[in-house]
Design a protein that fits this description.
- This protein has eight helices and six strands; from the N terminus they run βαααβααβββαααβ.
- The chain is α+β, with helices and mostly antiparallel strands.
- Helix 4 crosses helix 8.
Length: 234
């Protein structure tokens, strides 16, 4: 089960009117790709009904946060997507955890932590219990929203009712930039080239994090530019 990132209107997301990168490539090559998600949800197919529900949810969230929640919504608005997968995403979280808890980073002669199993890494477990620099990255946030105020991390229901940890997309971008600055992970590299993928048979955690960071930072900046949510999709 893979991990994709989606940037765009919630209306379109909940209508399932979007294609992952893998589906887009499949369509270009003439074959269909079926995506199986961890929690398949029955969804409404009427765009007007879904958009109205999302608007009501925005109003409810704004009242709960005490500020406006009013990014543009619509079934035909554009979206953007890419696929760091669990390797790239997990490696970014591991690097953030190592920066918070360098004492728990495996030494060069120890077995490296698995990015796909980042939650089992001692550094992640310790850092996520009380993160200081990378609060949304290490707190299990799955939805980052274009909010006027920064709630740090909140637990709220999606328009479909599913409880989800959420944060500000501006904070996500700031955390990713800080990680890039403190680790030097992107120094000397072309981010566009990195986003094309890995071309080594045995990538290190740093290699995977470099790819994942380039993908995530690009979409976080896109979400800020267009005032749209950024979501994990799996």
């Amino acid at each position: 089960m893979g991990l994709d990132l989606y940037v765009g209107p919630l209306t379109r997301y909940h209508l399932s009117d979007w294609l992952t990168i893998t589906q887009q490539i499949g369509a270009q090559d003439g074959f269909a790709v079926r995506v199986i998600r961890a929690q398949e949800e029955d969804h409404e197919t009427d765009p007007e009904v879904v958009q109205h529900a999302v608007r009501e949810w925005q109003q409810w969230l704004g009242e709960a946060l005490g500020g406006p929640v009013d990014w543009p919504e619509g079934a035909t608005q554009p979206y953007w997507t890419d696929k760091p997968d669990w390797d790239g995403f997990g490696a970014v979280l591991l690097l953030a955890a190592y920066d918070e808890r360098p004492d728990l980073q495996p030494s060069p002669w120890e077995k490296p932590d698995s990015p796909r199993e980042f939650a089992d890494a001692p550094a992640y477990q310790a850092a996520s219990a009380q993160p200081e620099r990378y609060i949304t990255l290490l707190s299990g946030v799955e939805w980052w929203l274009p909010l006027g105020t920064d709630p740090i991390v909140i637990e709220a229901s999606r328009p479909t009712g599913q409880p989800t940890r959420m944060g500000s997309v501006d904070r996500l971008a700031a955390e990713l930039c800080l990680l890039a600055e403190r680790t030097g992970l992107l120094a000397g590299y072309d981010p566009a080239e990195l986003r094309r993928g890995l071309f080594t048979e045995d990538p290190t955690v740093e290699d995977l994090a470099r790819f994942g960071l380039a993908v995530m930072l690009d979409l976080a900046e896109t979400a800020i530019e267009h005032r749209q949510p950024l979501l994990l999709d799996y």
